[in-house]
Write a structure and sequence with these properties.
Elements (H helix, E strand, L loop, with lengths): L1 H25 L4 H26 L11 H28 L8 H12 L3 H25 L5 H16 L4 H18 L2 H20 L1
Helix pairs in contact: 1-2, 1-5, 2-5, 3-7, 3-8, 5-6, 5-7, 5-8, 6-7, 7-8
Length: about 210
């Protein structure tokens, strides 16, 4: 019951952050007040989520023993795999599906970062951590028993892609599945989170290069 309650609080925290963003937009708040509040709120919510993960203890997927070599190996595999998947899907989208490979989210981040660089803390660090905890540790991990690992992957990845509301839906769908795989094999939510953070940082760095 304790774990269920903590996971419910985790989801509610995430929803609350989205609600704050919506309310600030309704209030027509912009510039430093908007991005400052959102970044601060994201840091607080991320801290709460990490704390809840800590007091929850390990779930059925996670290993009770931390292995640094395994963690480093899977962080590198997760990051490299994520980059290669994006390159591969970008090729398919551009040459076979004749779709644009420009991500609306990345374009928005690049524009925002120029005026409000501290917002990168939210987008490049807090967002990946929150997403891994919500979509992999809460949804994916809890859906395995009532369904199976394949349905759990499909459902959590679909929710992950829908949440991003980006034109490159396929990219987010496949990336969601990849991070489920990384989490499942590494047995550590912080490994998939680290891979997610590094992937975002590399993509952002290449975009501004």
């Amino acid at each position: 019951m304790k774990n269920s309650t903590n996971q419910l609080v985790t989801i509610l925290d995430y929803i609350a952050l989205m609600f704050v963003s919506t309310m600030l937009s309704i209030m027509r708040l912009s510039g430093h007040p908007y991005f400052g509040i959102i970044t601060t709120a994201a840091i607080v919510v991320t801290g709460i989520m990490i704390y809840l993960v800590h007091i929850n203890g390990k779930n059925d997927i996670e290993s009770s023993k931390f292995e640094s070599r395994r963690a480093i190996t899977w962080t590198l595999i997760g990051t490299l795999g994520a980059i290669l998947i994006q390159i591969g899907l970008g090729f398919v989208e551009q040459n076979w599906l004749h779709m644009t490979t420009a991500s609306q989210n990345t374009a928005t981040l690049l524009t925002t970062a120029k005026g409000y660089p501290y917002y990168l803390v939210y987008m490049l660090i807090c967002a990946p951590i929150m997403e891994e905890i919500i979509f992999r540790r809460v949804f994916f991990a809890n859906l395995i028993k009532p369904t199976n690992i394949y349905w759990a992957t499909a459902i959590s990845s679909l929710l992950f892609a829908m949440m991003h509301q980006d034109t490159r839906f396929l990219i987010y769908l496949i990336m969601g599945a990849w991070f489920c795989f990384v989490y499942y094999r590494s047995k550590n939510i912080y490994v998939s989170a680290a891979s997610h953070i590094l992937m975002n940082a590399i993509v952002f760095g290449l975009s501004i290069a």
